Amino acid sequence: MANEQRGTIFEEQAEVLAHVTHPGDQFVMRVKAPKTAVKAKPGQFVHLRVSDERALRRPISIMLTDPERGTVDLLYKAIGEGTHLLSERKVGDLVPMLGPIGEPFDISDLSKRYVLIGGGVGIPPMIFAADNLHGRDGDCVVFAGSEVEFPFALKPSATLLPGVNGNAILAVRSLEERDIPSRLASNAGLYGCYEGHVPNLARDYLAALTQEERDRCVLLSCGPHPMLHAVARVGREFDLPTYLSLEEHMACGIGGCAGCVVKTVEDGEEKYRRVCVDGPVFEAGLLPEFA
Ligand SMILES: Cc1cc2nc3c(=O)[nH]c(=O)nc-3n(C[C@H](O)[C@H](O)[C@H](O)COP(=O)(O)OP(=O)(O)OC[C@H]3O[C@@H](n4cnc5c(N)ncnc54)[C@H](O)[C@@H]3O)c2cc1C
Ligand code: FES
């Protein structure tokens, strides 16, 4: 798998074009990184050098690209020293960036309906996947969960989704405006959201589909571990192919240090895979923790 990536990871001096703060220490950053913008696929990430003094880079998922303008959008939460240093980067600064890295989500089968389930800073790969599918007339629905205000413009949805209750009326505006259905979940009492965890919202939706519709579904997810466990359970309940994007602590980020390995069981054999280049996306059934 990783061999296919040789020669496809670039080092670019990514110029910060916009950097917007949102509630809950969330930041949306647009950088100019033309090589990454052209090559990136949903599920891949970039590895950023957050300051001149810190050699260790930080991995951040790609949320959206514009290959023509050469831009890459990222959403991150400032949680520790590295991401706080990143949040101090100003428009015009250059951020050394490696990308795009990792095995992306497989969204090649356009006969499927991709059910995209993102939580917190796991939402970005779902936005990217929805955008990519839309560009190819693919079928998808996005469910996003957050316990702080969403860092996106929202608007009431004009489409009804099976199994989704009346309170959950808001959708991500950029998706809604392109007829990509989406709904939001939160336990924080946010207006217009389903009250509860986002995997439960996705479950309600799946349970309300006909068997024929459900059989076309593939679950793709990124978010905190407890959320991924819940998504894996939903996948098992409905016997659906389920792919999870893992977050693991990383050092090199390009397959050289084995600092990010995760145990898999493939054809009955235990293996250790590097999350950075063999993942971050894995089929849930291969991961003993989620199987
Ligand atoms: C493939 C991938 C994609 C990611 N995408 C995003 C994203 O789109 N937005 C976002 O906000 N965050 C994302 N993360 C998590 C982000 O990389 C961490 O929040 C960040 O590295 C924390 O660094 P820090 O120095 O601020 O925090 P500290 O806690 O001070 O970090 C100390 C060390 O722990 C590592 N670390 C801490 N938390 C995590 C974590 N959750 N996952 C992996 N390593 C961690 C750091 O890399 C660093 O080496 C992603 C992680 C991975 C592996
Ligand atoms: S972080 Fe070095 S191999 Fe993955």
Description:
[2Fe-2S] cluster binds at residues 252, 257, 260, 276. It comes from Mariprofundus aestuarium. Its cofactor is FAD; [2Fe-2S] cluster. Keywords: 2Fe-2S, Electron transport, FAD, Flavoprotein, Iron, Iron-sulfur, Metal-binding, Transport. Belongs to the PyrK family. Helix 5 runs parallel beside helix 7. This protein folds into two domains: 2-101, Translation factors (Elongation Factor Tu (Ef-tu), domain 3); 113-247, Rossmann fold (3-Layer(aba) Sandwich), CATH 3.40.50.80. It has a seven-stranded antiparallel β-sheet with strand order 4-3-7-1-2-6-5. Strands 13-12-9-8-14-15-18 form a seven-stranded mixed β-sheet, with helices on both faces. A two-stranded antiparallel sheet has the order 10-11. The longest helix has 14 residues, at 225-238. The chain is of the alpha/beta class. The relative contact order is 0.14. The protein has seven helices and 18 strands. The mean pLDDT is 94. Bound molecules: flavin-adenine dinucleotide and FE2/S2 (inorganic) cluster. Flavin-adenine dinucleotide binds next to strand 4, strand 6 and helix 2.
